[in-house]
Design a protein that fits this description.
The protein is mainly α. The chain has eight helices and no strands. About 30% of the residues are buried.
């Protein structure tokens, strides 16, 4: 039933509905609630001794998905919040726990992961409507 009403909406209505669903406080709460286990995970990794480089970006995924779940960020600016938080968590882990060049090299990757994976998931119709609205099609 929802798919039918979605197909009848104009691109502007779909975009406005998605923006209304987006929540900056929810994104902040999701970032913090994802950041706490992410920081704890860094302590677990440091207690393990040596870790694979991939392990150091797992906290960025946790932060991004928590922000995605609670805040539904669609636009780029709200998605910067979990990206910057992921980079700061990785920076603090690199400074205080690992102090290896590989840990510092993954800070930009954590930023990108936080921004990219925090975007709310759209249906194909929503994706098309957002694209049409942003590019001026009616």
């Amino acid at each position: 039933m929802h798919a039918q009403s979605e197909a009848q909406e104009t691109p502007q209505q779909v975009y406005e509905r998605l923006i209304a669903k987006q929540s900056l406080p929810g994104t902040l709460v999701g970032t913090v609630s994802g950041g706490l286990p992410a920081i704890a995970l860094f302590f677990v990794f440091s207690a393990m001794g040596g870790v694979l480089a991939f392990f150091l970006v797992i906290p960025a995924f946790i932060i991004a998905y928590a922000a995605k779940f609670l805040g539904h960020p669609l636009e780029f600016a709200p998605r910067l919040i979990p990206g910057i938080a992921a980079a700061l968590v990785n920076l603090s882990g690199a400074l205080f726990l690992f102090s290896s060049p590989g840990a510092f090299a993954l800070i930009p990757a954590s930023l990108v992961i936080g921004v990219y994976f925090s975007k709310t998931t759209l249906t194909p119709l929503e994706e098309k409507a957002v694209w049409r609205y942003k590019n001026g099609f009616k």
